[in-house]
């Protein structure tokens, strides 16, 4: 009896030959966009490095220009590397470019078509978008600020507490950022807070996310390159069993959380969605996944943005932006209270720091792929039907035509507008007259743009303002064996869907209080509040 490998090779061979024959008959009149030369059958797959692919795509964009074509074993991959190109196709022609490429493992087996980020652009996707929409508007986001205010107070409290406990050994700020964001989003979604960041729900949620990053990786599963392999029986397709196990892990987490939310005495997204007309007749598991993915999508992204903010602080803060921000905070806020959302119109510089963080180190550095089912033309090139279309995030955020010069450096000033007599802030306090209307490409494009971006912006503002107000940060606890201080390199990062700075483990960063926060803890308005949180 032929073995698994023989079946696999036979199936692959048939698919590749069919693709080749089809491509010979369908010759478009316009050329494909330029790109590195593909080889027969596998195309450009072998030229993509195993690690830091986004950096290679950035270098290629310098050689091949704003639109590139790669062949992933015959599957066209179009890469957009300037803001103009991404805007023209993904924003302006969004009716054609809002689909997602098919991911058999992560999208169909592990999440059974219910992952919002991976859903094809169809009626069911739009139903879910409609169900979420009222909870994610600017007005809705403005209502969540008291919760973000509270969570950011606990953040300071936790950092201070750890400083008291470990002193010179450093502070695990990643954990505290993660707890604050997770607690915000779990409270909104399900009506319960996460006070330690070690709760079982969060641990399971983090495992689900790690599995999503792993199973969704390009090349991780052969079935993603050759979806017809999924027709193989289970005993020849080992990924199916793995998919079932991962689905069960995720189902239990999301359904458990949904039930908790619905039985909670407090208002939350779960209750609101369940009562919506869109949810009428929707299976419990589908509603649970909608909420669960919303929580997953918000957690890592916002936490990582704050991690990069600390890296920028350590590696480029001495160039003046930290001092400038702290002087502004001292003028506007003083030292007897914490900055709050009411101060935000006067603290546009803090929002400029948040925007610059998302530009300087885009959280999803390789971009989130879109997909088009219809063929198209752009800049004199042919875009084939069924192309994956990737906004090359690292290149786009370095587009000098949009963001000005010195793009590799952290310069919040690039976001500041000329002084204007007509002051205007939105209802969340974001000062629209003091800040330039530059594109926030870190949140993606078109109809698939990040739906949680307003909540995220509020979270970044309050946490960055309060961290800058409270602390000075230094890198590098002394390494006991060598006696040298640990150096932080601003490009040192992990691989994966979101890109974390390295190292982000404990004992690497020192946070020094700017004020005598110990005495404030007894008498200060805000830290007394923080004590209430802990009770
Ligand atoms: C700094 C924080 C964040 C960043 C940088 C970020 C970034 C992104 C990006 C790049 C996308 C893909 C857009 C595209 O395909 O063009 C996305 C999608 C998404 N984000 Fe965010 N995000 C953040 C926070 C959040 C938060 C707090 C939530 C939830 C409250 C959220 C929920 C979502 C959802 C549900 C999607 C899927 C949208 C779709 O495919 O239709 N995100 N985000």
UniProtKB/TrEMBL annotation:
It comes from the Eukaryota. One of its GO terms (molecular function) is heme binding. Heme binds at residue 450. Keywords: Heme, Iron, Metal-binding, Monooxygenase, Oxidoreductase. InterPro entries: Cyt_P450, Cyt_P450_E_grp-I, Cyt_P450_sf, Cytochrome_P450_fung. Pfam families: p450 (PF00067). One of its GO terms (biological process) is mycotoxin biosynthetic process. The keyword Cell membrane does not apply. Its cofactor is heme. The keyword Oxidoreductase applies. PANTHER family: P450, PUTATIVE (EUROFUNG)-RELATED, P450, PUTATIVE (EUROFUNG)-RELATED-RELATED. Belongs to the cytochrome P450 family. This is Cytochrome P450.
